[in-house]
């Protein structure tokens, strides 16, 4: 599902780009789940089943290929921008640039994508650490860091905040059990918001590690809309980010900082580039260190966290960079056509 209320970071980024394209007077056609909220035209796909059956992905690939073709037939398209983690399964055969943004750790994709011999195909990364981890590829164009909408309310002072929060997909690599253990050791209430998608291993993880831990001090709210999420972040003393995955970005940490909320995160992927240790949060290596850091967040200034978010993590900056890249790729391809050249990398 695409929209401001989407749980996934890629879906939220796509929503920002869709909004910016329409605001700039361009046509935006979005292929996404039927419940998506877009500013342009939605070409809807069916939602994933719950639970996700073994044969679902074969159907997904066929449906997305068909829906992308439908979108291309609607009107003249100048560029296709793909965000799905499995984009390589349904890259369209078109005579316009196809840009694929890599949202996952580079090693999580089939390594063959970095050497695809597809004319007019380009790849881009969302953080410097992700780009450094990616193989050398002639398809790679540039790095555009993610950004978030900055809320217009002033952050609450630290003295008016209480408890820790976690906002994430509920799955093993997000380390929810580590955050629960840290909050329990620190003696602070913990609020968890998010969703366990219908993958059997995610549901099993929720049932084994999250559900039994819920009590008067550890609560689970399920998925939240954007306004609810911002209210929760604004009232919290800190956001816990105990991820075990090599994170390529973290929209929720950017949103937290925009609300003036410090972030306590594992040293994972690009998180050390987002959190300024001792200034906008703390970087830790274990549940024990996370518990210790929870006791120190009252020393951090919410106003500083928000100022850093405005300076570094604005969605306006992100979409400007994407629109500039679109223009460059379209111009490059038009120039190649006019001179009779084909792109070879």
- Which homologous superfamily in CATH is the superfamily of the largest domain? Glycogen Phosphorylase B
Q: What is the 3D form? A: globular
Report the CATH topology name of the largest domain.
Rossmann fold
**Quaternary organization:** single chain
CATH architecture of the largest domain: 3-Layer(aba) Sandwich
Query: Strand fraction band?
Result: 15-25%
- Rounded to an integer in angstroms, the radius of gyration calculated over CA atoms is 21 Å
Plain-language structure description:
The chain is of the alpha/beta class and 345 residues long. The chain folds into 2 domains: 163 residues, 3-Layer(aba) Sandwich (Rossmann fold), CATH 3.40.50; 155 residues, Rossmann fold (3-Layer(aba) Sandwich). Helices cover 37% and strands 16% of the residues. It has a 6-stranded parallel sheet, sandwiched between helices. Strand 7, helix 4 and strand 8 form a beta-alpha-beta unit.
Structure at a glance:
With 345 residues, this protein is α/β, with parallel strands linked by helices.
Outline the fold blueprint.
Elements: H1 9-23, E1 29-33, E2 41-45, H2 56-74, E3 80-82, E4 98-101, E5 121-125, H3 128-133, E6 140-143, E7 164-169, H4 176-186, E8 190-195, H5 200-210, E9 218-222, H6 226-235, E10 238-241, H7 251-258, E11 263-266, H8 271-274, E12 281-284, H9 287-294, H10 302-312, H11 315-338
Parallel strand pairs: 1-2, 3-4, 4-5, 5-6, 7-8, 7-10, 8-9, 10-11, 11-12
Helix pairs in contact: 1-11, 4-9, 7-10
Q: How would you describe this structure in keywords?
A:
345 residues, 6-stranded parallel beta sheet, Rossmann fold, alpha/beta, 11 helices, 12 strands, 4-stranded parallel beta sheet, 2 domains
